[in-house]
Design goal:
Blueprint lengths: L1 E5 L3 H13 L4 E6 L3 H11 L2 E3 L2 H5 L4 E4 L3 H13 L3 E4 L7 H14 L3 E3 L9 H9 L5 E7 L13 H11 L1 H12 L4 E6 L5 E6 L5 E7 L8 E8 L2 E5 L6 H16 L10 H19 L1
Parallel strand pairs: 1-2, 1-4, 2-3, 4-5, 5-6, 7-10
Antiparallel strand pairs: 7-11, 8-9, 9-10, 11-12
Helix pairs in contact: 1-9, 4-5, 5-10, 8-10
C-alpha cells in the first residue's frame, strides 16, 4: 500500500516516518508539509519525496498517516477520505464532537478504512495485558500520568495545541481508550482542575465500577510518573508503560489499517467511531468541570 505522511514534528519523525519506512507491504511515497525547510529535511532523511502540495500527494498514495495538531488533522483527513484514501490518525481525532462527526461522516461516505493510533493498544507488553484485562471482571481502576511536556528538554515544548488544551486533551484520550474496554461505558462523570493543567476525574462505569484519573503535562520533572491499575477479586494489577520503540508499535497499526482496508466494509475497534466516542467523553469532562 502506498502511504504518505502529513507532519514533520518530533513524533512524526521518531514514530510515523520511521514506522512507515520499516513496515512490510508499505511503499512510503512522501511527506507533506507547508514548511518547505522541514519537509525537505525529513524527506531526505527517509529517502522519500517532499510535497508542498497536499492534493498532489493525495493523487499518488492509497493511505495517509497524520501527525499534526487535531484541528489541522480533521480538515486534511476529511479531504483525504473524500479522495478515497485510508486514514491512520493520531488522537484526539478532533477537538470537538462536531468536528469528529464530520470526519466520521466522510469516512463512512467514502467507505475507507481508519485506525486511530492509541499507542497503548499497539505497544507490547501493554497490548497483550489490556487484552487479558478485558477478559476479567474488575471493580475499578485508576490512572496516574504526570509529565513535563514543556520543559526545555521535551520534544513537545513548542506544541501550541498541547499548551492550549492541556493534559485533558493530550493524555485524556489515552486514558479513556484504556478504561472503556476494561470497565465499560461511562455513565456519570465529575472532574476538577488543579495546579497548572492538572485534571482529576472520577467516573462511574457499568455495574457500579469506578475509575479515578489524574493527569498533568506541567508536573515537576521529579514527579513524572505513569501508573495504570485495575482491582477486583483477582487482586490489583498494576502496570507502567514500557518504552518499546514507538515505530515498532506504529508498524502494528499500519498492518491493521491495511487489513481493514481489504474488507468490503472496513472496520476496526479503534476506528474513527471509537475516536469520536473518546472526543465526546472528553467534552463531557470539560462540561463537568464547568458546572
Amino acid at each position: 500500500m502506498k502511504f504518505g505522511l502529513v507532519g514533520t514534528g518530533p513524533w512524526a519523525e521518531m514514530c510515523h516516518a520511521k514506522g512507515l519506512s520499516t513496515s512490510d507491504d508499505v511503499d512510503f511515497i512522501g511527506i507533506y508539509s507547508r514548511n518547505t525547510e522541514k519537509v525537505n529535511e525529513l524527506a531526505a532523511k527517509f529517502g522519500v519525496r517532499p510535497f508542498n502540495d497536499y492534493l498532489q500527494m493525495l493523487n499518488e498514495v492509497d493511505a495517509i498517516s497524520f501527525c499534526v495538531p487535531p484541528a489541522v488533522q480533521v480538515e486534511l483527513a476529511v479531504m483525504a477520505a473524500s479522495h478515497g484514501k485510508h486514514l491512520l490518525l493520531e488522537k484526539p481525532i478532533a477537538l470537538s464532537s462536531t468536528s469528529a462527526m464530520r470526519l466520521v461522516d466522510a469516512v463512512e461516505r467514502a467507505n475507507v478504512a481508519s485506525v486511530v493510533f492509541f499507542i497503548f493498544h499497539f505497544a507490547e507488553p501493554e497490548r497483550s495485558l489490556l487484552t487479558d484485562l478485558r477478559n476479567q471482571v474488575w471493580d475499578g481502576g485508576w490512572i496516574r500520568w504526570f509529565g513535563s511536556a514543556f520543559s526545555p528538554n521535551s520534544p513537545y515544548k513548542d506544541s501550541t495545541w498541547r499548551k492550549d488544551k492541556g493534559a485533558l486533551w493530550d493524555l485524556g484520550p489515552h486514558a479513556i481508550s484504556i478504561l472503556l474496554p476494561v470497565l465499560g461505558d461511562i455513565k456519570n462523570i465529575s472532574a476538577i482542575y488543579g495546579k497548572g493543567d492538572l485534571v482529576q476525574i472520577v467516573a462511574e462505569h457499568q455495574n457500579k465500577t469506578t475509575s479515578v484519573v489524574s493527569m498533568s503535562l506541567t508536573s515537576p520533572e521529579a514527579a513524572n510518573d505513569i501508573e495504570l491499575a485495575f482491582y477486583g477479586e483477582n487482586g490489583i494489577i498494576k502496570f507502567t508503560r514500557d518504552r518499546e520503540d514507538p515505530a515498532i508499535s506504529f508498524e502494528r497499526a499500519v498492518k491493521e489499517l491495511i487489513c481493514s482496508s481489504q474488507m468490503s466494509t472496513p472496520g476496526h475497534v479503534l476506528d474513527v467511531n471509537f475516536g469520536m466516542k473518546v472526543v465526546s467523553i472528553i467534552e463531557d469532562i470539560e462540561h463537568a468541570i464547568m458546572q
